[in-house]
């Protein structure tokens, strides 16, 4: 994030793109986050409807029945009399009031959840954005704290090098090398993801419960919602943005990008797809190679629309599977929207990094709740959904590149012929 912000500041001094780039990236990210939250709300309403229908279908018989010494159960009659005359399967749904006069009843596990007002939620978010210890925030993975620190640091790194000074910005080069080294470490770690997934799935099967049997139906609904919002974003929203801003046929341009889509789906990595995407954009003869390289390199780590579509849906899915749907209040939905938007600029463009980011999103929205057991189901689905997310990210950057190149590459064909 620090490197990306510093590069944006440097871009302001060296290119005509400047805030147009930031504006286009921000526009696509906001649209994706809005669509993702909308899909999550639709999915939540669908789950609520199914839960209501299931509750209605459940027998309304009594949950608690009082058995007498004669083996019969306590039963009330229409005249108000009470007698121990009912069989267990014949008891009706009378309501009995139990008064704990001696204080003998206690809650086995005290409830630790607290209710906060909207103002308290806002204050908590501000406190989280300004940490007392940035190293503790980095260790805990508190994204808001990390972003709040990375933004001014990136500006400071860019401003530390004046245009009158000879040579490149050495501090920015140092941060770039550190970023590249960390990405290599993350990529190497993620190679062991299949082994970790195997153990997670084994644990899930060993702890199989009745609630796990509903996984297939719920997973089917969340995958259907995700595919629907992806089709809307890729096939409708971004093409409309492209047409409204530069008045060109978006689908004719997208047809030329099919090789990049196929490669992105196969390798499941935005970073690995970057050279292919730049080549495909250059072959459209609408964007120069230098412009494509500049915008795609900047957008790959900072403009990842799939995060805005993916995180809200997966959080709602895990919340429902854990029986916490009532805790997903309006303030938490606002936090979920904001963190999904910010997460689109803070997810590493490497395979399965979205799962790591999802953990951060969960911890930010539900800071006191442990990682839900249903996360293993998300991991199981990510083999397919992760590849779809890479295609969405690559598509968003290629569409943004075409928008930003309009007006700057009017003579792109002549320029490319000069290089030939």
TrEMBL record:
Molecular function in Gene Ontology: symporter activity
InterPro entries from the UniProt entry: Na-dicarboxylate_symporter, Na:dicarbo_symporter_sf
UniProt cross-references to Gene3D superfamilies, sorted A to Z: Sodium:dicarboxylate symporter
Location(s) in or outside the cell: Cell membrane; Membrane
Pfam family name, one: SDF
GO CC terms: plasma membrane
Keyword tags: Cell membrane, Membrane, Symport, Transmembrane, Transmembrane helix, Transport
Bilayer topology: Multi-pass membrane protein
TM region positions: 21-43, 141-160, 181-201, 221-246, 258-282, 302-321, 333-362, 374-392
Family to which this protein belongs: Belongs to the dicarboxylate/amino acid:cation symporter (DAACS) (TC 2.A.23) family.
Protein name in UniProt: Amino acid transporter
Lineage of producing organism: Eukaryota, Sar, Stramenopiles, Oomycota, Saprolegniomycetes
